[in-house]
Amino acid sequence: MSLLNSLLEYNRGFVERKEYEALKTDKFPDKNLAVLACMDARLVELLPKAMGLKNGDAKLIKNAGALVTHQWGSVMRSLVVAVYALRAEEICVVAHRDCGMNAIDPHAILEAARERGISEETIVTLRSAGIDLDNWLKGFANVEESVRHTVSMIRQHPLIPRDIPVHGLVIDPGTGSLDLVVDGYPGLDEAP
């Protein structure tokens, strides 16, 4: 059985058993919180449990490395929507130790793409179109500094209100222990 068929088969039983009823909530986060976290599979259940979050408590946005790399990208759009349309009043950026984005090698990623059938012509065309693939695929060397940078990008965004605290944390994917990197409360009234 394929993975997709297995997921769909499980879903049919989930719906038939009405397991969704215990998870019912609305679109507004009960804790008025938006969380930007890494997509690492170890955090799927660990992160919400380590933060004491249950279904409906927060808007959870995930990407590789819990990074904001562009002021006008989809992550920032999601955060702006969370603030203005979904009542988020605080934002937490949560990266993690032992992250795959830590010192990721863009050249290795592109080589793997070539091995999977992406042509050199495609890569050259993207570069010729002005896409800096090496920078786009680059990770980070220090997780705490990456969190500080992302928090700063969010705080400095012209559409994020000055009264929204933006916190930065790093979670241990083995234990769930959270380390505070940026406390978003001090200086809320100050311009970034």
UniProtKB/TrEMBL annotation:
InterPro entries: Carbonic_anhydrase (IPR001765), Carbonic_anhydrase_sf (IPR036874). Binds 1 zinc ion per subunit. Keywords: Metal-binding, Zinc. One of its GO terms (molecular function) is zinc ion binding. Its cofactor is Zn(2+). Zn(2+) binds at C38, D40, H96, C99. Belongs to the beta-class carbonic anhydrase family. This is Carbonic anhydrase YtiB. The gene is ytiB.
